[in-house]
Amino acid sequence: MFKQKNYTSKALEKEYMFQHPGVRTVSKIKDAAMNKHGVVLEERLAEEVLKHVVVNPKLKIDDFSNYKEYTEVINAAYAFISGQDEDGESDDHQQGGSSQES
What we know:
By secondary structure, this protein is an alpha+beta fold.
């Protein structure tokens, strides 16, 4: 059984269920979302995340009527499968510059 997470969006306070599809599938999602130059394409990433990660409700991009809700859900789901949301580590500013001591 794969790890699941309930998620409530901040934009519209809708509830979603994310399910981790496994490491191999996460790798395939990332590969499928990139163009030939290695740039992640938003539409491809969203399609893959909605297909493999957002399990309830099952949605397609066109089912969203609010862009803010759409980007929030996709970003939260991707953070979940890539391990960036564990223990409050989802904040982008958690990646500090150089905190090395000499």
